[in-house]
Amino acid sequence: MLADTRILLNKANKGHYAVGHFNINNMEIVQGVVQAGVKLKAPLILATSEGAIEYAGMNFLYDLAATASSLVNIPIALHLDHGRNVDLIKKAIRKGYSSVMVDGSHLPFAQNVRLTKNIVALAHRKGVSIEAELGTIGGMEDTISSRKILYTDPNQAKEFVDTTACDFLAVAIGTSHGAYKFKGKVQLHLDALRQIKERTKIPLVLHGASGVPKDIVAMAERYGANLPEVEGVPDTQIRKAVWAGINKVNTDTDLRLAFDAGVRKALQEAPRDFDPRHILAPARNLIQSVVERRIKMLGSDGKC
To answer: What are the distances in angstroms from CA 137 to CA 55, 62, 147?
Structure first.
């Protein structure tokens, strides 16, 4: 049985740590993420984007997550990430997702409120919790892109949460989607984050927070990748954000980089081996290693 995202994040809110949200696209990614959670006794949120659903199908991804949850003794929730297609959001609610994100961040404030409020009413009747977003972060990942950052206003955040009754709120404090996040020093707007937390009191979510591990990038490049000027959010900044009120941290890019590096290495080192199990197992193991690092950094290890 899938876990209740609301319960996981409310516990994290009280305990001043964050639960890792990890985007999934196939079985090997699910296995790598879940193996890390089991090893470190950490709660997990598996997430499917609209792009992942288009690639693999909602039923397939749901069953992967549900099967993983049934086989292990850690809580695993399933989340719809960046839901903009209302029909798909409703389908995820009917399917039994633990939580869904209503992404109205690209809309004017009043329209975002109206959309979110309508979905909250529908989801809460089914016992599904809702993540909303106020403000926009830069960059591009999957089907979501934005050319500029619009920082979340603390006063608007309170009005938004009070009006919509959303369960968690994704905030824009200086992060960016994808692997090409920054040029120069990274400095998140932690003062604004503290104000948002003080005004809303609910679990807050950080998108665009992938670390882009330098050793993983170096491995991928050693075996043929071309990844110039990639840059992630330093662990020190993420830790400060968690202490300031973030309770869910999204990770996608790091998993993609690990998968890419693992597959490239396997293919180059054994060019005559065409067994997909031998090609994909190293990627799965590298994903587990990356997720273990994230869990420890977020402080969710041992929290089951």
So the answer is: 24, 28, 8
Write out residues in the chain with pLDDT < 70, as ranges.
138-148, 177-185
Sort strands 144-146 and 138-141 into parallel, antiparallel or unpaired: antiparallel
Which residues are CB-contacts of 71 (< 8 A; sequence separation ≥ 6)? Answer: none
Q: pLDDT tens digits for 151-165?
A: 999 999 999 999 999
pLDDT of residue 180: 52
Show the DSSP H helices in the chain as ranges: 5-15, 27-40, 50-56, 58-71, 86-95, 109-125, 154-164, 190-200, 214-222, 235-244, 253-269, 276-298
- Exposed/middle/buried for 206, CB within 10 Å: 0-12, 13-18, 19+? buried
Instruction: Count CB neighbours of 71 within 10 A.
Output: 10
Which pLDDT belongs to residue 136? 82
- Which amino acids are annotated catalytic? 81
pLDDT of residue 138: 57
Cα gap 79→140, rounded to integer Å:
20
As given in the structure block, the two tokens for residue 199 are 């005004």
Alpha carbon of 237 to those of 198, 203, 234, 254, 297: distances in Å? Answer: 19, 18, 5, 16, 11
- Angstrom CA distances, 133 to 81, 93, 151, stand at 11, 18, 11
Q: What are the residue ranges spanned by the domains of the chain? A: 5-298
- Cα separation, 278 vs 190, in Å, equals 44
Q: Which amino acid is at 12?
A: A
Separation in Å, CA 88 to CA 51, 64, 79, 95, 211? 11, 18, 12, 10, 29
Domain 5-298: homologous superfamily in CATH: Aldolase class I (3.20.20.70)
The string of pLDDT tens digits covering residues 243-276 is: 999 999 999 999 999 999 999 999 999 999 999 9
For residue range 126-140, list pLDDT tens digits in order.
999 999 999 887 544
Supply the pTM of this predicted model. 0.93
Burial of 150 (0-12, 13-18, 19+ CB in 10 A): middle
